[in-house]
């Protein structure tokens, strides 16, 4: 049985035949861990990373290990076997660098990209690749093979879709699952578990295949608010989960996934930080160099771990005395800036925002609704712009000779150009160059996976200086996209006036300053650069009962660093307002061009 309207599932408790689909809340307050350090693991697009943190959120040591990726047109795949080996390497290296013994690790947590993992009854990989290579059992988050499936799912206008901005993205799991069923029938019949990558990592570590409320709500259309009114952060009761809309899965052609009490997609669900099983199994503990039984917290998606790792990192000078803690946190948006960028904001009331994912109840911070915007290619786009330019090899050589990164050298070139040309501010260098950064579609707020990137203002110049201009214009295009998301969210009920940034791109001073100038908000950087790893370690700290819950741990382990303020020069604002209008027009022109060509081909 299921609620007639899953949107109101919290109004009734639904009985289900055994084995029951259970929700496992985090442990009750009052039982605390004795000291120790906490381990966070993050599997990104290109590497697995591990970090050791103390109870104040100070990073004691970190390490990374590369992971393999296969790219063939819209199909992007990875291997869970390869990823686990990389995780083990990174964990051992981090512990060694931090001079931490296995018995010092009081708890650990996993975060990862929202990639889709397929395994059989024994936990062995099942291929999701045209190649039939069994190693390739992960469809990576940014894989866009399922655009057609997403369109067909969205055409059904199911009630669950209003909780993902009005429609699923091809980066979510339902379209990818439908693609596998329609194209790889043998793999479909072999797979016994379909899991988000962070859930699979926790399963591989503990043997417990309980799924995270974060992953299921944000990527699988699970309705977390089915538990509203039944659960509070300090409540330790087990509760029956009633958030799967079985009619939705049947209507889109995936009814077989909800057979057998949803065993293939998750029969038990837990809030992030809940201690899984009996902790690390003897096998996984040996592989990781840790002790059997070490508590493991239910996982988070990597961007959401970044939110947990940074959202309370507000210095006293930036705090608003006239606002309660609850009101203040709802004025913030976290930018998790890596290969892509995720824009995370929370509210106490559910806000439906067209083209923006959510509202997701308790998917990041318990008892808050999460709004999740995003740009599918940011760091990846900057890499693409630089690496595919004629000047790239020369630039790389010059950077190496100066022992700086390519991006540090580009920033220096831009400063030199601004001085040489005697312009009033550096941003004005890009006045003739405009970029629409939708090179991998638009995730938010227009939610158009078919959108294409645009560069307006190209010349025959192949110099390093011209590459620096393209790089600057691309950063600005990305920042205009974030401004569009912030304005769109505020127009639909949010009151965002402060940004926090973490991830690799947050280490780029030009990138952050351009965002502050363009959006007109101060940007707070955390004390610790590795916010995603910190967020993952919070899960371990909560699982070890060092803290009563996620938000309690955040208040202790988050800490602010530098604050970057917008320029006070009114000319900078006037300039960016003008460029922003051009930015917005580029997509409108694209729609017009698309329509013109479609009519020509009729």
Under CATH, the topology of the domain at 37-304 is which? Nucleotidyltransferase, domain 5
Integer-rounded radius of gyration: 23 Å
Mean pLDDT score, rounded?
A: 92
- State the shape: globular
CATH architecture of the domain at 37-304: 2-Layer Sandwich
Distinct helical segment count: 19
Quaternary class: single chain
Strand content: 15-25%
Total strand count, please? 23
Q: Classify the secondary structure makeup into a structural class.
A: alpha/beta
CATH superfamily of the domain at 37-304: ATPase, nucleotide binding domain
Give the end-to-end Cα distance, rounded to a whole number of Å: 47 Å
Helix content: 25-40%
**Uncertain segments:** 1-34
């Amino acid at each position: 049985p299921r609620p007639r309207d899953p949107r109101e599932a919290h109004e009734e408790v639904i009985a289900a035949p055994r084995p029951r689909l259970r929700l496992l809340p985090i442990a009750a307050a009052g039982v605390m861990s004795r000291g120790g350090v906490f381990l966070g693991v993050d599997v990104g697009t290109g590497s697995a990373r591990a970090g050791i943190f103390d109870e104040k959120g100070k990073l004691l040591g970190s390490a990374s290990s590369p992971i393999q990726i296969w790219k063939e047109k819209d199909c992007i795949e990875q291997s869970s076997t390869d990823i686990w080996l990389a995780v083990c390497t990174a964990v051992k290296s981090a512990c060694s660098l931090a001079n931490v013994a296995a018995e010092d690790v009081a708890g650990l947590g996993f975060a990862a990209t929202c990639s889709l993992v397929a395994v059989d009854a024994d936990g062995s990989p099942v291929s999701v690749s045209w190649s039939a290579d069994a190693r390739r059992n992960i469809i990576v988050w940014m894989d866009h093979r399922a655009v057609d499936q997403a369109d067909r799912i969205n055409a059904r206008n199911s009630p669950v879709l209003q909780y993902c901005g009005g429609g699923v993205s091809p980066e979510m799991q339902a379209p990818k699952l439908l693609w596998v069923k329609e194209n790889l029938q043998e793999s479909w019949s072999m797979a016994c578990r379909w899991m988000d990558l962070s859930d699979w990592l926790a399963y591989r570590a503990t043997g417990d295949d309980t799924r995270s409320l974060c992953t299921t709500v944000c990527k699988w259309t699970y309705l977390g608010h089915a538990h509203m009114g039944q659960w509070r952060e300090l409540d330790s009761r087990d509760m029956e989960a009633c958030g799967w809309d079985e009619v939705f899965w049947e209507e889109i052609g995936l009814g077989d996934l909800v057979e057998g009490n949803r065993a293939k997609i998750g029969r038990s669900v837990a809030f992030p930080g809940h201690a899984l099983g009996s902790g690390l199994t003897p096998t996984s503990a040996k592989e990781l160099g840790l002790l059997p039984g070490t508590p493991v917290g239910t996982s988070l998606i990597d961007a959401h771990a970044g939110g947990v790792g940074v959202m309370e990192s507000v210095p006293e000078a930036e705090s608003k005395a006239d606002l309660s803690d609850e009101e203040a946190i709802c004025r913030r948006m976290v930018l998790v800036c890596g290969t892509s960028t995720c824009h995370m904001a929370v509210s106490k009331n559910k806000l439906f925002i067209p083209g923006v994912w959510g509202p997701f109840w308790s998917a990041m911070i318990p008892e808050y609704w999460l709004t999740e915007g995003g740009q599918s290619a940011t760091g990846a786009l900057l890499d693409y712009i630089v690496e595919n330019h004629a000047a790239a090899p020369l630039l790389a050589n010059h950077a190496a000779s100066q022992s700086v990164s390519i991006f540090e050298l580009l920033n220096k070139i831009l400063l030199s150009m601004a001085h040489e040309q005697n312009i009033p501010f550096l941003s004005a260098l890009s006045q003739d160059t405009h970029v629409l950064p939708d090179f991998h579609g638009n995730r938010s707020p227009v939610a158009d996976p078919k959108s294409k990137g645009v560069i307006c203002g190209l010349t025959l110049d192949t110099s390093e200086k011209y590459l620096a201009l393209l790089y600057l214009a691309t950063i600005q295009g990305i920042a205009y996209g974030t401004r569009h998301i912030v304005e769109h969210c505020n127009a639909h009920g949010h009151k965002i006036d402060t940004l926090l940034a973490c991830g690799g791109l947050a280490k780029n001073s030009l990138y952050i300053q351009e965002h502050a100038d363009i959006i007109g908000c101060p940007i707070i950087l955390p004390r610790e650069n590795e916010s995603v790893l910190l967020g993952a370690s919070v899960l371990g700290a909560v699982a070890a009962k060092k803290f009563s819950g996620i938000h309690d741990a955040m208040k202790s382990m988050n800490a602010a660093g530098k604050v970057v303020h917008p320029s006070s020069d009114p000319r900078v604002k006037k300039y960016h307002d003008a460029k922003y209008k051009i930015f917005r027009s580029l997509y409108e022109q694209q729609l017009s061009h698309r329509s013109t060509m479609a009519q020509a081909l009729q």
